[in-house]
């Protein structure tokens, strides 16, 4: 293996990366969008037309009645939680494998994240674990469509409807993912769907966010929360509710519109590359491939590796990286509940509010811990991989896997 001084599968030819133009789909359309806005002289979405058009186009593409734009995926989750309007100390159920942007907005609204364990094959929230945790103070469940694989939202919607609480879909990693073959798209099954336009996502504006809903009251609350509680529709200068400024700018909105037009092709290309790699790797003993019922949109390509300990998993990812295929052990360093912000907790001054007295011990979600520490390796994915690139990825995984995983 290259990590032991051998020849790497790819030398001197880095794979297309989402951190530069090689792994992004940005071209003359985005350039024209930026110039159009600059030349108009109107950079604010309060009076401009770009963000308004983006939200209409996005809602139409996803299949929701409304979309509201904001400044990031974290802001999108914050808008959604604020729209649900929990009482201080109410609980919101979340999975422990996600970006922290799925969780800190809950604390920002003075509610308490409660972590439900995940499915061992997909890492998405387990509805049985959710059912066990729903109690009198639960106000919502956040389902994260991890790596582009839809969480079981139909079941979660049944559960949450029965409990009279909200389902929030975190779709930051899952654009245009049907929740079942030929079915509705992620972001339209819950009461609210949250999307991110951060640099690594399927489409990007650097940062940016969108929230979908079919509910006009929720849509109004979302809009107001992103705009200081200001009722723009009446023309009155009033501040009708507690809110911040999370507005998207016209520059971001215009670039997002150009990106949106490319999204269906981006998803197709990501799926085609993933199918080629999965085809080459299937049957390798001790290697689990992402379950795909035609619904996976491959933000990342997750591998499930058998028989390793924590150090072994780290070495597996390092060995793949040394072969020229950047990979991460566990996706996260630790499940989100083990991060200092929750464990200490580090919230408002020294109060620990609203988490004081809450415990987030090791062992809270054993399936998630097994994935993060011992089983999961992720390969960041993108739509610009060529046939030769995906061949190299498959060759590198097979090489490292055969060397490190006893069959
Ligand atoms: C699942 C998930 N939720 C939320 C976020 C937060 O999005 P952002 O980085 O745009 O704030 C991200 C991305 O980083 C994410 O992957």
TrEMBL record:
One of its GO terms (molecular function) is pyridoxal phosphate binding. Pfam families: DegT_DnrJ_EryC1. The keyword Transferase applies. Its cofactor is pyridoxal 5'-phosphate. Keywords: Aminotransferase, Pyridoxal phosphate, Transferase. The active site is at residue 201. The modification N6-(pyridoxal phosphate)lysine is found at residue 201. One of its GO terms (biological process) is polysaccharide biosynthetic process. SUPFAM superfamilies: PLP-dependent transferases. Residues 1-26 are annotated as: Disordered. PANTHER family: DTDP-4-AMINO-4,6-DIDEOXYGALACTOSE TRANSAMINASE (PTHR30244:SF34), TRANSAMINASE (PTHR30244). Belongs to the DegT/DnrJ/EryC1 family. This is DegT/DnrJ/EryC1/StrS family aminotransferase. It comes from Jiangella ureilytica.
């Amino acid at each position: 293996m290259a990590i032991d001084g051998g020849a790497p599968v790819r030398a001197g030819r880095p794979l297309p990366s989402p951190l530069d133009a090689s792994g992004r789909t940005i071209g003359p359309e985005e350039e024209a969008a930026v110039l159009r806005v600059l030349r108009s002289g109107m950079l604010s979405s309060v009076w401009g037309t770009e963000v308004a058009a983006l939200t209409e186009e996005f809602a139409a593409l996803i299949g929701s009645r409304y979309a509201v734009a904001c400044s990031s995926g974290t802001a999108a989750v914050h808008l959604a939680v604020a729209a649900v309007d929990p009482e201080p100390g109410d609980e919101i159920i979340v999975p422990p494998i996600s970006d922290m942007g799925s969780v800190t907005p809950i604390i920002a609204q003075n509610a308490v994240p409660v972590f439900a364990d995940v499915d061992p094959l997909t890492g998405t929230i387990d509805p049985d674990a959710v059912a066990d945790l729903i109690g009198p103070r639960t106000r919502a469940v956040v389902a994260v469509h991890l790596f582009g694989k839809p969480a079981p939202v139909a079941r979660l919607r049944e559960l949450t409807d029965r409990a009279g609480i909200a389902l929030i879909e975190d779709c930051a990693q899952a654009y245009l993912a049907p929740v079942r073959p030929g079915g509705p798209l992620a972001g339209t099954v819950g009461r609210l769907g949250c999307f991110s336009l951060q640099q690594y996502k399927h489409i990007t504006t650097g940062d940016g966010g969108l929230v979908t809903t079919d509910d006009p009251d929720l849509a109004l609350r979302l809009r107001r929360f992103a705009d200081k509680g200001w009722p723009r529709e009446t023309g009155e200068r009033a501040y009708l509710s507690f809110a911040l400024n999370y507005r998207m700018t016209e520059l971001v909105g215009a670039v997002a519109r150009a990106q949106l037009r490319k999204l269906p092709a981006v998803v197709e290309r990501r799926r085609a590359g993933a199918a080629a790699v999965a085809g080459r790797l299937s049957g390798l003993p001790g290697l689990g491939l992402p379950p795909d019922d035609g619904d996976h949109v491959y933000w990342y390509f997750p591998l499930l590796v058998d028989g390793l300990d924590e150090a072994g998993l780290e070495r597996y990812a390092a060995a793949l990286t040394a072969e020229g295929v950047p990979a991460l052990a566990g996706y996260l360093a630790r499940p989100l509940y083990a991060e200092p912000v929750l464990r200490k907790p580090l919230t408002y001054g020294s109060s620990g509010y609203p988490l004081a007295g809450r415990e987030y011990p090791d062992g809270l979600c054993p399936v998630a811990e097994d994935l993060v520490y011992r089983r999961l390796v992720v390969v960041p994915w993108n739509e610009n991989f060529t046939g030769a690139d995906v061949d190299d990825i498959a060759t590198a995984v097979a090489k490292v896997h055969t060397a490190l995983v006893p069959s």
